[in-house]
Amino acid sequence: MTVVEITNQDQFTQFTTTDAANxxxxxxxxxxxxxxxxxxxxxxxVISEEVNQKDVRFLSIDADKHPEITDHxxxxxxxxxxxxxxxxxxxxxxxxDPKELVKCLEALSGGSASSAxxxxxxxxxxxxxxxxxxEDEEEETEEEINARLVKLVxxxxxxxxxxxSPSEPKCGFSRQLVGILREHQIRFGFFDILRDDNVxxxxxxxxxxxxxxxxxxxxxxxxxxxxxxxxxxxxPEYFQHALQ
Length: 244
What we know:
Elements: E1 3-5, H1 9-18, E2 24-30, H2 35-50, E3 56-62, H3 67-72, E4 80-85, E5 88-94, H4 98-109, H5 114-119, H6 125-130, H7 134-138, H8 142-153, E6 158-162, H9 172-183, E7 189-192, H10 197-207, E8 214-217, E9 220-223, H11 225-234, H12 238-243
Helix pairs in contact: 8-10
Organism: Saccharomyces mikatae IFO 1815
Family: Belongs to the glutaredoxin family. Monothiol subfamily.
Protein name: Thioredoxin domain-containing protein
């Protein structure tokens, strides 16, 4: 098994300390409910077969089953990758981006994992949604994009449509909403609307809301940054109630 599934704290400690030696440790935080994680798990299996196992170790951590590990690394969005070398975090990646994962592995381990990205395994949800040319995107009908949006807003119990990623927000409003979710310890999925103009433009009509970020809970539109702030002011347990 090239990717080790963490089952308990003792196992995690052993793999990241006693047995770590000089290995690059790749911590992959995922959940069973997030569709991008399902695809990325398959991609990671392929990538892990392409690198030197003497130099790199891949550990998969279910964020819901191991909150003590997840909280230690302050993980609030999945999928999420943490690269650890000699006990130090050297890189973090938020989101399902096989190309970025391969790039980091090659830079940090000195190995080559590019064939895994090019030849094998399914694309991640993010890559599938963003890999088409602009010409292909223009051919997507309103019915098709609406069907895709219905799936996207339900991809996670809490779904954030933002500019950039939680680790690298591309606007102040997105950064603030990510901060609010993390402050309230809410795990969430996200979609970078800058990578898909069809989603960016169509979601405005779909949500009947002209700006981003936009937050969905259980498939229902909640609002943008100001609305979420107001909702929390009115009800400090807003997220808990909305998730019921």
